[in-house]
Specification:
Blueprint: H1 4-9, H2 12-47, H3 50-104, E1 108-109, E2 115-116, H4 151-182, H5 194-211, H6 226-234, H7 238-247, H8 249-253, H9 260-284, E3 292-294, E4 303-305, H10 307-338, E5 354-360, E6 366-371, E7 379-384, H11 394-411, E8 417-423, H12 439-458, E9 465-471, H13 473-484, E10 491-495, E11 515-518, E12 528-529, H14 556-565, E13 568-570, E14 587-589, E15 600-602, H15 619-628
Parallel strand pairs: 7-8, 7-9, 9-10, 10-11, 11-15
Antiparallel strand pairs: 1-2, 3-4, 5-6, 6-8, 12-14, 13-14
Amino acid sequence: MPTWQQLRDVKLSEYTDAADGWGKVSSRANADKDRVDNHMFAKIHETQKGETADKAGGDVRQLSRNYQYLHTECGLVRTALNGLAAELAAPQKKLKQALEDAENLKFTVKPDGSVSYPTQSYVLKGDQTAHDGAPFPYLPGKAEGIGSGDENKGKAEDIAQRIGDAVREATEIDGRYAAALRQLKAEPGLTVSDETLADAARDTKAMQGAAGKYADDDKIPHGKSPKENADWWNGLTQEQRDEYATLYPASIGALDGIPSAVRDDANRMVLAETRAQTQLDLNAIPKQPQEYLPNPSGSYPAVIKNPEWREWNEKYGDRKKELEADLKGMNAIQDRFDRTGRAEKPGERPLPEAYLLGFDTQGNGHAIVANGNPDTATHTAMYVPGTTSNLEGIGGDIKRMETLWRASDNLAGGQSVSTITWLGYDAPQDIVKDAPFSHYANDGAPKLNAFVDGLRATHQGDATHLTVTGHSYGSTVIGSAARQGTLHADDIFVAGSPGMQVGSATDLDVPKGHVYAAEADSDPYLKGLRLPGSPLDMLTDDKYGGFNIPFVTSDPVPDIGGWGHAPKKVDIDVLPSWIDGDGQSVVKTLTPTNPDFGAHIVATDGSRGHSGYWDNGTESLNNQARVVTGRYKEVTAQ
């Protein structure tokens, strides 16, 4: 427990000066990590091949982990020292004021914190003078002097009380930070293991508890608009920004309206620690027993279910699948980081730096990955994936935006391009059971609008030309965003859309003529409902009028989804139970590729199936790139 003399004499500036030093180390480590991630990997693969490249790549990846750990731990030390200094300032001020009052009253503060005082002067007889009173020790909860005939006794007690309060407050602060600082120890050696990174996450949590009064997560504007987030961020000092990003990386990484580089640093910290803990959790699961065993009786069946496997599967089966799914997605994100600066073909421009603008493993998992910095890009395209999208499969969505980046960069004439995979919502996971329902889109739409507004808030210089692209159910999210709020995009491009909850392109917030829709020949849409009733009812055979209605084609997404998400147009006031002789629909779903919707229906030559719109060399990809870069006159029509 510190003494009042130690509290009085401590130089808080020494703590803040030391914090500055640790902060510089943290910042340098982060810059070094960025250099490793964005330059060294590419150089290795330019100069080395085969096993040599793999070995060197592994060493460099380890170096990146080391810098990540240094950045985190040194940042925590900086925050601890700054927090300690900031919190000790209040009790030190309280103590110094009490000491000053004692000095002004000619009281004496003893080493143990007790206070001696002179009795009040009064005339008794003749020339008698006042005498010193006995020292008044600090007695918690007592105030004998207050209200007594001797006012000095009450004043002395008040001073002793304030001294004791200040020392106790300082003791609590010192103990809180000391406990957290003691945890900031690394194992000897140059290898930052999964265990070390997982320990860093625990260190962060411990420091959150220690420094919560100094930098509180509640002070972060959760649930506010991107503009309010930006105003809060811009009102902080750089040191405060660094401390919030270190202490609460998940909260800062999710905050629309603050710079992409800041969100990337914070989310990479979360990714590294979560990935390490996930691997450790997987390693802790016992080895799976053999599922089938030979039947010991030798009779039929020849094999039986292993009881040990049943027990293992009940206890670990689902958990193992969840961890493996999360790890697969995180590895795909890390793989994108590792490919920064690399070109797929000779003469091709290398991939730009990647930015992780969102990440968590809640539910089916979420990730937002950008190719190039959207805060400085002349042209930005963000892609909303559709049904079955989740963290486990994020690799395919990331690759699509890489392909679009290359195609757009080739047309940009030297202007900068950023393409973003936005898996920031909970997508439906089953085409039949989930995709026909709109609540996934309705829940995700406000998040999409907030992210777009955040891009607008953080962009430097002239506003970026922003295209929002939706695939399959992702287009429904885009339509819902425009319907529920305002989608501040310049262009909308949708592919394989089951419907957008609006009946006209003019309802989508972008300027007239800036909605584009693609539908490949092998991704067929039935333009209308053949029969009245629920689309799920029509999945049956011939109960309607004795006809077998071909409601479901080779791609059920538009067929089922179109009736869940697209307004309908009735051509005649009759609803027969079969298609008329001309093959025309009685009721049409107003999907974006219906001419009545009002979008530009673009050519898709070369695209195959429901997911081929981003295949290299296809006209659908080329048309997307033309829209992304504003080369509208070159867009080819279907």
